[in-house]
Amino acid sequence: MDVKPEQEKMDIGEIVENVDAKPTGTESPENVKVKVEDTPGSNTSGASAATASSSEEWMEDDGDHNGPIVIIMVGMAASGKTSLTQRITSELMRRGTPPYIINLDPACLDPPYPVNIDIRDVVKYKKVMEVYNLGPNGAIVTSLNLFSTKFDEVINIIKQKRKTHQYVLIDTPGQIEVFMWSASGSIITESLAALFPTVMIYVTDLISNVNPITFISNMTYACSMLYKSKLPLIVTLNKCDAIDPTFAKEWITDFDAFDSALQSREEYTSNLASSLALGLEEFYNKIEHVVVSAYDGFGMDDFFNAVQKSVKEYETVFRPMYEKLIQEKKEKSLKKQKQQLGKLKKDLRADGDADSCFVVPGRDAGTGMTLRLDNEDDSSTDDEDANVKEENEEESFSQVLNKEANRRSEKYSDDQGQGSSGAPSSKT
Ligand SMILES: Nc1nc2c(ncn2[C@@H]2O[C@H](COP(=O)(O)OP(=O)(O)OP(=O)(O)O)[C@@H](O)[C@H]2O)c(=O)[nH]1
Predict the structure, then answer these.
(1) Which residues approach ligand 1 with their CB closer than 6 A?
(2) Are 231 and 314 in contact (CB under 8 A)?
(3) Is residue 365's pLDDT more than 50?
(4) Nearest in space to 304 (alpha carbons), one of 24, 91, 99
(5) 142 and 204 housed in the same domain
(6) Phi, psi of 291 (to 5 degrees)
(7) Is the model's pLDDT at 35 over the cut of 60?
(8) Which residues have a Cβ under 8 Å from the Cβ of 283 and sit 6 or more positions away?
(9) Looking at the whole model, is its pTM more than 0.90?
(10) Does 83 fall in a domain?
(11) Domain of 396?
(12) How many angstroms separate the first and last alpha carbons of the chain?
């Protein structure tokens, strides 16, 4: 990354919660208007992966796993993520359970739904382009990375919403790879999935899926996302108001139907696509798929049924996996802490008699626990001590050698001073 030297660090804002952002009714289904004629095909654009760091505070599990259900909307550019987020918001409003909404797209202009936490309030996407000398996609990746460094704050806010919100909706950038394949995407999904029932919605556009090659590419992508995110996935076939979705439903459930559609096209990639479809049969059995329209609200009941099923799957299959992951991370950070403590004790010992600073030297009055800085059962400290001892021994050995060398050279110069022509037989 070409960073301007004088601006290596960029200030990022605080996480701001927009408490006034409540659905107002403008999101009612009849007001959700998307233009059929505006529907472009699916695209992907490249972006490089970058690294991000995150506080480990998100691991602090408060033991309450009662929600809210987190729904993450991902999908290719223009598949309808934002329109569907708007539609889901309206539907939840209608059901009397308004969602809490988070926008993770730093480059979006004006989301058509009320946003409670907006990445644009934290990171200025245009400034990122300027400071890091990046193009639009690189700046989206970097903005998300910067935001992910503060994601523990978002997690804490979501924890507080358990009593007031049943759902959290998260809209992601149009460039799907920015979220799915970046370090920050992993940090965000792992942090959420560790604490809340989390479901991934893969939005795909039925209009572009008419082509069997595009369809199978989309399904392969969805499959890779299932393995990458380790979260329940719902393939959501959007825009069914614009095209009869029967073909897609058939292709998912019946390999022969897909294969004959493929053969009729006689494309050179047909054989590969056919093999892929065969391989994906197992995947189709594992994932939920629903047909919806963000435009007219078709399929919303199916959508929420699929979400409920996925939440059950999360509880039984995915949560145990995440609990193991958290345990491993905790153990790692505990080990690190222990090492740091060992180092601190060593420094204290080096600086003076720290034991004498305790009320009862070496003993805690309340618990009777030994607080002495020495004789601790700390393997890392023992190792370090052994190294120090070895160094000391090496040091004294070289001191003996030096002494011997000095003694001999003194003797040699004395001999020369007395006019002796004899040279020393050996030098140290
Ligand atoms: N006919 C029809 N068009 C839709 C539907 N949903 C979205 N669209 C149209 O598809 C286009 C893209 O919709 P968005 O909701 O902006 O898609 P997106 O995936 O959020 O787009 P990016 O964030 O830019 O990737 C818009 O022109 C919408 O009007 C739908 O259900 N039916």
Answers:
(1) 34-36, 38-39, 75, 77-83, 174, 238-239, 241-242, 293-295
(2) yes
(3) no
(4) 91
(5) yes
(6) -105, 125
(7) no
(8) 219, 222, 223, 226
(9) no
(10) yes
(11) 383-417
(12) 55
Provide, rounded to the nearest whole percent, the portion of the chain with pLDDT above 70: 64
Prediction ipTM score: 0.98
CATH number at residue 255: 3.40.50.300
Residue 8 has pLDDT above 70, yes or no: no
Instruction: Report the domain count for the chain.
Output: 2
How far is the C-alpha of 216 from the C-alpha of 227, rounded, in Å?
17
Measured in Å, residue 162 CA sits from the centre of ligand 1 at 30
Q: Whose CA is nearest to atom 10 of ligand 1?
A: 39
**Nearest of 221, 192, 191 to residue 204 by alpha carbon:** 221
Residue 426 domain flag: no
- From 212, 211, 208, select the one nearest 258 (Cα to Cα): 212
Domain boundary among 308, 330, 352: 330
Structure token pair of residue 186: 């992993």
pLDDT of 293 strictly over 90: yes
CA–centroid distance, residue 201 to ligand 1 (Å): 15
Work out the average pLDDT over 230-239. 94
246 part of a folded domain: yes
Residues 191 and 283 in one domain: yes
DSSP annotation string for 198-231 = EEEEEEEETTGGGSHHHHHHHHHHHHHHHHHHTS
297 is a domain residue: yes
Q: Let me know whether 155 and 93 are in one domain.
A: yes
Q: Please tell me which residue, 172 or 48, carries the higher pLDDT value.
A: 172
Q: Is the pLDDT of residue 167 over 90?
A: yes
- The mean predicted confidence, pLDDT, of the chain is 75
Which residues have CB under 8 Å from 140's CB, separation 6+?
A: 47, 105, 106, 107, 125, 173, 175, 178
Residues 197, 70 contacting (CB under 8 angstroms): yes
85 Cα distance to chain centroid: 21
Residue 281: is its pLDDT beyond 70? yes
